[in-house]
């Protein structure tokens, strides 16, 4: 067994690996950028090495720096986690060439599965069913458009080197193909250094089913059953669960058997995931499930597999990398109960899920069911604009699916984060959707129900919040509440700002309120923030503060976050229509399109391609044209 390990990653996965390594008596070494100098994974490791500036391309993506850090600290092995260099065959080869242990599959296995077109051809040869589409070297836009027409719309454009939902575009009609192709190739080149794409038939009623596989250097390959990751937004997973709802034993045997064949076809060692797309229109059937791709690394959602099997996958990784065989045979693995994971992101669902950055002045949650929280931050830490905005993975279990859903919903509802925005309330509402509870899920479910899911409900504890607020800020009480008494005999009315929106409220002075038992709150500069069902509500006296999101009604388009302008689609003086794309901003590894709020003319343009912009910078101003 290896004695020391460098983790070439950050955040929650680095903390996750450190936890298991420490339990096994393995010394851990963290690496960090400028932005992560005080990060939790740095504080948790036995030793830490600075590897460069905040941008990942200058630190976490520089393999030479990571190998040098391993040599400097005497680490025997490197664990890449996921993302960054985890599926980079050249980096894996360089680690091995440096005389270090690579905690992952052989470089040749990564190469074989790294390009989606080549992987699908390999799977065809191995008898693994694949999705209909176009796989080829001809990347001429006109030729690809012809192939899309032959496949039949809708089609999916997918970067061959892609992952994590990047470099993917669904196209519904021929008129949209050219623009989608340009955007997809641009994002793929920026994210993966490779803009080659393939085309696939878009599957109606699609479900995302994936199988956890594990191989060793002794020729053994096992599966640890399936996960369902169908609840997605823009091809990024939101809720994951194991096992998959509606999966019968015959279908499970067929799909998991295909996954093992796929892993054996590339002589796979270590943890990996075979991802399938299923046509769920008639339930899960073996003849309607096709191979999509293989992720040659540990997955973000691996905890749900661990929870139903009782296996520590990171421990297995370290043992297999040390030359040991897989600890359990296939017949020793079984499903026990149900597990679900929700990804808690620093983002604002009400504003198109734009990432939210800043300091976690308040971050807490309440776990009463043995829930599992995987996180790389603590209260007081910063959410940086340089990396993925995931705050934590929230994992709950149950004897059955209904109980697992209830437990995870309760966990999401107790999340308290301020002032950074999160998707906790959105997650709680999503878990409460009856169709999801009934197991009727598909990858388009969130998009189809988005308006309802992102709508923040009225707070139930508003009266209690105001009754708490007034005596704490008595000097600032507005005229309508002068003379307010907690034991007064009459109702009082006044104007309050609830999430910066003025509301006139009547308060019953005589109502009995148990502040401790009924209201979860934190004080801020102008009032309080109360928490209900995963949502924060700011309550202030009389003054209404600006939201900082830009006055779209006035035509002022402000930058919603710090980022880089990667495309400008209009010019000064140009006429535009409501919804027309004005420019594209790249931030936190994703592209965000800003559009015209109404018909008008570009009266002011302050953005140019390649420019770095700060939050709330005025980028475009649209003036309405009088009829």
Any overview of this molecule?
By secondary structure, the chain is an alpha+beta fold. It has 6 domains: 4-103, Rossmann fold (3-Layer(aba) Sandwich), CATH 3.40.50; 106-131 and 208-336, D-amino Acid Aminotransferase, Chain A, domain 1, CATH 3.30.470.20; 134-201, Dna Ligase, domain 1 (2-Layer Sandwich), CATH 3.30.1490.20; 338-455, ATP-grasp fold, B domain (D-amino Acid Aminotransferase, Chain A, domain 1, 2-Layer Sandwich), CATH 3.30.470; 462-541, no CATH class; 552-623, OB fold (Dihydrolipoamide Acetyltransferase, E2P) (Beta Barrel). Helix content is 26%, strand content 32%. It has 18 helices and 36 strands. The protein has an 8-stranded antiparallel sheet with strand order 14-13-10-11-12-15-22-20. Strands 3-2-1-4-5 form a 5-stranded parallel sheet. β24 and β25 (501-508) form a beta hairpin. α4 runs antiparallel to α5 and α12 (401-413) runs antiparallel to α13 (424-431).
In terms of per-residue confidence, which ranges show pLDDT below 50 for 5 or more consecutive residues? 474-491, 543-553
End-to-end span in angstroms? 77 Å
Number of E-type strands: 36
| Strand neighbour order, sheet with most strands | 14-13-10-11-12-15-22-20
Rg computed from alpha carbons, rounded to a whole number of angstroms: 26 Å
CATH topology of the largest domain: D-amino Acid Aminotransferase, Chain A, domain 1
H/I helix tally: 18
Question: How much helical structure, as a percent, in the residues?
Answer: 25-40%
- CATH hierarchy class name of the largest domain: Alpha Beta
Biggest sheet statistics: 8 strands, antiparallel
Mean pLDDT: 89
Summed up, the domain count is 6
User: Quick one: CATH superfamily of the largest domain?
Assistant: ATP-grasp fold, B domain
* Shape estimate: globular
Oligomer: single chain
SS strand fraction: 25-35%
């Amino acid at each position: 067994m290896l004695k020391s390990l460098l983790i070439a990653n950050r955040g929650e996965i680095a903390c996750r690996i450190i936890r298991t390594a420490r339990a096994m008596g393995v010394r851990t070494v963290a690496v960090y950028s400028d932005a992560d100098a005080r990060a939790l994974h740095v504080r948790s490791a036995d030793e830490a090495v600075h590897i460069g500036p905040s941008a990942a391309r200058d630190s976490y993506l520089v393999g030479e720096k990571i190998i040098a850090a391993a040599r400097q600290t005497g680490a025997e092995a490197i664990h890449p986690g996921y993302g960054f260099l985890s599926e980079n065959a050249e980096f894996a080869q360089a680690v091995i060439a440096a005389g270090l242990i690579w905690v992952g599959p052989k470089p040749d296995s990564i190469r074989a599965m790294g390009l989606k077109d080549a992987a699908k051809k390999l799977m065809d040869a191995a008898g693994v069913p694949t999705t209909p589409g176009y796989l080829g070297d001809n990347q001429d836009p006109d030729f690809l458009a012809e192939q899309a027409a032959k496949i039949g719309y809708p089609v999916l454009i997918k970067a061959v080197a892609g992952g994590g939902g990047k470099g993917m575009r669904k196209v519904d009609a021929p008129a949209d193909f050219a623009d989608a192709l340009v955007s997809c190739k641009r994002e793929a080149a920026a994210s993966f250094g490779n803009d080659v794409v393939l085309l696939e038939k878009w599957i109606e009623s699609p479900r995302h089913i994936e199988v956890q596989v594990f191989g060793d250097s002794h020729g053994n390959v096992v599966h640890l059953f399936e996960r369902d990751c169908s609840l997605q937004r823009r091809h990024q997973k939101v809720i994951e669960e194991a096992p998959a709802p509606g999966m019968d034993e015959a279908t499970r045997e067929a799909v998991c058997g295909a996954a093992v064949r796929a892993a054996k076809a590339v002589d796979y060692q270590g943890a990996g995931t075979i991802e399938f797309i299923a046509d769920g229109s008639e339930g899960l059937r073996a003849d309607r499930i096709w191979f999509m791709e293989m992720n040659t690394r540990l997955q973000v959602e691996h905890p749900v597999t661990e929870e139903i099997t009782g296996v520590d996958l990171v421990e297995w990784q370290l043992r297999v990398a040390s030359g040991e065989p897989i600890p359990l045979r296939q017949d020793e693995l079984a499903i026990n109960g149900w597990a679900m994971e929700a990804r808690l992101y620093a983002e604002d669902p009400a504003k198109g899920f734009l990432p939210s950055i800043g300091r976690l002045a308040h971050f807490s949650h309440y776990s009463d069911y043995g829930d599992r929280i995987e996180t790389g931050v603590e209260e007081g830490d910063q959410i940086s604009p340089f990396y993925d905005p995931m705050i934590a993975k929230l994992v709950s279990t149950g004897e059955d699916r209904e109980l697992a859903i209830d437990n995870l919903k309760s966990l999401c509802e107790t999340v308290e984060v301020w002032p950074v925005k999160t998707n906790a309330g959105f997650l709680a509402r999503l878990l409460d959707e009856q169709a999801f509870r009934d197991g009727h899920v598909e990858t388009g479910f969130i998009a189809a129900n988005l308006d309802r899911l992102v709508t923040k409900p009225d707070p139930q504890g508003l009266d209690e919040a105001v009754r708490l607020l007034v005596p704490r800020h008595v000097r600032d009480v507005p005229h309508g509440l002068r003379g307010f008494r907690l034991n007064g005999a009459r109702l009082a009315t006044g104007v309050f700002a609830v999430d910066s929106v003025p509301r006139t409220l009547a308060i019953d002075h005589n109502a009995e309120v148990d502040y401790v038992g009924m209201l979860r709150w934190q004080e801020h500069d102008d009032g309080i923030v109360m928490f209900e069902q995963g949502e924060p509500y700011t309550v202030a006296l009389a003054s209404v503060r600006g939201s900082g999101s830009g006055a779209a009604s006035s035509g002022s388009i402000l930058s919603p976050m710090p980022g880089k302008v990667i495309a400008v689609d209009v010019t000064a003086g140009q006429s535009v229509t409501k919804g027309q794309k004005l420019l594209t901003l790249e931030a936190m590894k994703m592209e965000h399109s800003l559009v015209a709020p109404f018909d008008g003319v570009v009266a002011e343009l302050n953005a140019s391609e390649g420019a770095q912009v700060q939050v709330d910078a005025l980028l475009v101003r649209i003036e309405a044209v009088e009829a």
